[in-house]
From TrEMBL:
The lineage of its organism: Bacteria, Pseudomonadati, Bacteroidota, Flavobacteriia, Flavobacteriales. It comes from Chryseobacterium piscium. The keyword Transmembrane helix applies. This is P-type Zn(2+) transporter. SUPFAM superfamilies: Calcium ATPase, transduction domain A (SSF81653), Calcium ATPase, transmembrane domain M (SSF81665), HAD-like (SSF56784). Its main location: membrane.
Length: 648
């Protein structure tokens, strides 16, 4: 869908820069195993420094001293040198592993053994912390959604049998005990059951389902034993699709992230050539040139310049944002959409199902006094039972049980108008006022003054009256608009419903602009008008019916995406429950993520710039270099992880 419009950020499967993903190495190891090489190296380094500086001896020198520090170097240095070699084989010569390798080998070459070991030791400790942080972020995201049980209990010939969830076929019946998670999507066969849907929607309140309703993988049965008929394959369940979506979210990079990766690819070789320049160029300009001193400065320069603080902390910041969203029932399809939402200026929303419940209720029955209201309602209810329209459901809920003794003949649905039938030889019409006009039945009602949806009724060629039907506003809709205004985001409502209804809802909520009686192409034109002002637009709606508008907007947000496969496919951000208050929450997550990412960029560049100047002037040693590299990286990582603990 993104191809529809050039304004939409495209998917970027970018693997440039430094592939810093060591999380696979972390998953199967304990903390002690991860830090064991560093502990061994640190112990040997401390002993070596003690022999060098605090214990007088005449034997800790020469080849023995070199071998001691080499043994201290190998546990932490060998893995990095191996990474550098593998990167070179793949064509990525100027990786950060290469930088650290030549810096520490250079330190050994000029006899600065303790500093060579220390630089690699601190770098390796930093790498472990980085890998643990990335792995934790990924695990958090996955564990929030990967709620599928591996096994389920199915009924075979009335007998319960435990089988692998992925082997269950469509049509089979799952028996779900109290407290058990459902493994596949299905249809509830039991009369009623309550489910905990928190894993899917972030909503803690139990959701009660009745017979025939859809239940989804990941829901937890809360009370009596229930039976569910499987309707979807394991791999096609909503949960599987959502899980796949979140795991793939990181492939769609934010512009900031892409820039840093490209920057690192250009920046690293420049740093290497500058270091070579620092080593050799002073020979031509300095009278007392000493190769060893200038090589040391170049090595310090290399360590300081290592871009790992940027390369790891920025993706980690976006990981955190995506994780924070999924923990709150908001799925971002890529880190680029976090960036777009952070800067969004307009939220354009549909009405039905977004700001209103999408459940119609009869508000008023206004029939002429000469008609028996109860009798006419029975006839209308019987006729509407032939339709699946939400209006028919509203009338049925209001009128009650259908009187099956009523004989309906010649039932006809007239598209865009309503229903027609013959009862007791008399014609019954139920629909909009266009239907009444079509059959030339006169009435004296001014329909434009009524804000609700009108259902007109005529019987035996006479106008009986009308029912008003309205959709109730969602309980958190007002809070949503208030929060959007607080974020300085402009709001617009676009709907195909009649203008008076749309204006009424907009006035109730304080939405700035509202337009009704719109066809899909009219909605597109309204969004184009906003974009013509060079303003960013987020569209919130169904995501299926409004596909053209979603494609045109900078970011498409789908409400209630849990119930629609197509919505999950087409929208850029999926709100898993129907709460509009998640819209400002998603914007806020975007803003906080962007703020943390830029804090890390500014921190890394500032510290590195200061220490680089000191290093070039000979005022910074390897120890300052270690702080500028590993220290800044760790601070940036801790800052990036912070977003996962924030409350939105």
């Amino acid at each position: 869908m993104e191809e529809c419009c050039s304004t939409k950020p495209k998917k970027e499967h970018n693997n440039e820069g430094h592939d810093h993903d060591h999380s696979h190495e972390v998953q199967d190891k304990s903390t002690l195993q991860l830090f064991l090489p560093a502990i061994v190296s640190f112990a040997l380094l401390l002993i070596g420094i003690t022999f060098d500086n605090f214990i007088e001896n005449n034997w800790f020198n020469g080849w023995l001293r070199l071998v001691w520090y080499l043994v201290a170097y190998i546990p932490v240095g060998l893995p990095v040198l191996k990474e550098a070699y593998e990167s070179i084989i793949k064509g990525d010569v100027f990786s950060e592993f290469f930088l650290m390798g030549i810096a520490t080998i250079g330190a050994f070459a000029i006899g600065e053994y303790p500093e060579g070991v220390a630089v690699m030791l601190f770098y390796s400790v930093g790498e472990v912390f980085q890998a643990m942080a990335v792995n934790r972020a990924k695990t958090n995201i996955k564990s929030l959604l990967d709620q599928r049980p591996d096994e389920v209990t199915i009924l075979k010939d009335g007998q319960p049998q435990t089988v692998k969830a992925e082997k269950v076929n469509i049509g089979e019946i799952i028996q779900l005990k109290s407290g058990e998670k459902l493994g596949l999507d299905g249809e509830l066969l039991s009369e009623k059951a309550s489910f905990n849907t928190a894993a899917l929607t972030g909503e803690s309140k139990p959701d009660t389902k009745i017979k025939g309703e859809t239940v989804l993988a990941g829901m937890i049965n809360l009370n009596t034993v229930s039976q569910v008929k499987v309707t979807t394959d394991y791999k096609d369940s909503k949960l599987s699709k959502i899980l796949e979506l979140v795991q793939n979210a990181t492939s769609q990079k934010a512009p900031t992230e892409l820039f840093i990766r490209k920057f690192a690819k250009i920046y690293t070789p420049i740093v290497v050539f500058l270091a070579i320049g620092i080593t050799f160029l002073p020979y031509f300009f300095v009278d007392d040139y000493q190769f060893k001193a200038w090589l040391y400065k170049a090595l310090v320069f290399l360590v300081i310049s290592c871009p790992c603080a940027l390369v790891i902390s920025i993706p980690l910041g976006y990981f955190g944002g995506i994780g924070a969203g999924s923990r709150n029932g908001i799925l971002f399809k890529g880190s680029n959409f976090l960036d777009v939402l952070a800067n969004v200026q307009n939220v354009v929303m549909d009405k039905t199902g977004t700001m209103t419940e999408g459940v119609f209720k009869v508000q008023e029955v206004n029939f002429g006094s000469e008609f028996n209201k109860e009798e006419i309602l029975k006839l209308v209810n019987a006729l509407e039972s032939q339709s699946t329209h939400p209006v028919a459901t509203a009338i049925h809920n209001y009128a009650g049980e259908i009187d099956h003794s009523i004989q309906l003949e010649n039932v006809e649905e007239i598209a865009g108008h309503g229903l027609k039938a013959t009862i007791n030889g008399k014609e019954l019409l139920v629909g909009n006022f266009k239907l009444i006009d079509k059959f030339n039945i006169s009435y004296d009602i001014k329909t434009e003054n009524i804000v609700y949806t009108l259902i007109a009724v005529a019987y035996d060629k006479k106008f009986v009256g009308y029912l008003t039907i309205a959709d109730s506003i969602k309980e958190d809709a007002q809070l949503t608009i208030n929060k959007l205004k607080a974020l300085n985001v402009k709001t617009t409502m676009l709907s195909g419903d009649k203008t008076s209804v749309v204006q009424f809802v907009a006035n109730e909520l304080g939405i700035e602009n509202a337009f009704g009686d719109l066809l899909p192409e009219d909605k597109v034109n309204k969004v184009k008008e906003l974009k013509a002002k060079n303003e960013t637009v987020a569209f919130v709606g169904d995501g299926v019916n409004d596909a053209p508008v979603v494609a045109l907007s900078d970011v498409g947000i789908a409400m209630g995406g849990l119930g629609s496969d197509a919505t999950i496919e087409t929208a850029d951000v999926v709100i898993q429950d129907d709460k509009p208050s998640k819209i400002p929450m998603a914007i806020n997550i975007g803003k906080q993520t962007k703020k943390i990412v830029w804090q890390n960029i500014i921190l890394a560049f500032t510290v590195k710039a200061i220490v680089l100047v000191l290093g070039a002037g000979g005022l910074a040693t390897m120890w300052e270099a270690v702080f500028a590299d590993v220290g800044v990286a760790l601070i940036a990582i801790l800052n990036a992880v912070r977003i996962q603990r924030m409350k939105f």
